[in-house]
Specification:
This protein is an alpha+beta fold. It folds into 2 domains: about 40 residues; about 170 residues, Beta Barrel (L,D-transpeptidase catalytic domain-like), CATH 2.40.440.10. It is built from 3 helices and 8 strands. The longest helix has about 35 residues. Pfam families: YkuD_2 (PF13645). This is L,D-transpeptidase catalytic domain. It comes from Flavobacterium limi.
Length: about 220
């Protein structure tokens, strides 16, 4: 009889310990899920092929040999995705926040923060991919009142000039990353924050005919 009672006690003890382990494991998994939901994703995209092609393109087309700008619209808009690449140092010297076009979504919203629609069509309010040459410095009604004319060099962005696609600043664009929130979307222009534009303006006033390449990785 005592032996039977002893075995029953062991079974009950084992069951309780197993239940506690399950409950503890579940709690840890829940904690991990909560952390994963708020953690900023690591941007591990290898742009070396783009850098090499851009350098060759600049040499072949008599563009600025010091640096170029790469904008990756495949990156979440709440993260920095406007990169100034220094050919001399073979490294990114600056990175900034930048907007993309809202398309059929509401202007200044963030609905397409993860996957913007791309188009070269008139009145599409979309961003266009491809290589651009940054030309003359002009006056803007936005931001710090400075813009730069963009000339599309490919079929995918051939309407840039007639669509009035320019590089400018906008008060709505944040300077720092806001992920998982997005950056306000405009009508297709690559717009940066006022503070960022002040730095970019100094760069472009010194270096002429700079290549801007907009991609979607």
């Amino acid at each position: 009889m005592k032996k039977i009672i002893f075995i029953v006690c062991l079974v009950l003890l084992f069951s309780c310990n197993k239940k506690e382990v399950k409950e503890t494991t579940f709690s840890k998994n829940e904690f991990k899920q909560e952390i994963a939901g708020t953690e900023k994703p690591h941007n591990a995209i290898n742009y070396s092929g783009y850098y090499k092609e851009a350098q060759q393109y600049c040499k072949s087309n008599n563009l600025n040999h010091n640096q170029f700008i790469l904008i990756d619209l495949g990156v979440h808009s709440g993260l920095k995705r406007f990169f100034v690449y220094d050919f001399r140092k073979n490294a990114v010297s600056k990175s900034y926040m930048v907007s993309h076009g809202c398309g059929e979504n509401r202007w200044s919203g963030t609905e397409s923060k993860e996957n913007p629609v791309i188009s070269n069509e008139f009145d599409s309010h979309c961003s266009s991919l491809g290589k651009y040459v940054i030309l003359d410095r002009g006056v803007s009604q936005w931001g710090i009142k400075v813009n730069y004319i963009l000339k599309g060099k490919e079929k995918s962005n051939s309407n840039a000039a007639s669509r009035a696609i320019v590089l400018h600043s906008w008060e709505a664009i944040p300077t720092d990353e806001v992920y998982p929130e997005g950056t306000p979307e405009g009508w297709g222009c690559p717009a940066v924050s006022n503070e960022s534009m002040k730095e970019i303006d100094e760069l472009l006033k010194t270096d002429k005919k700079v290549l801007m390449w907009i991609i979607k990785s």
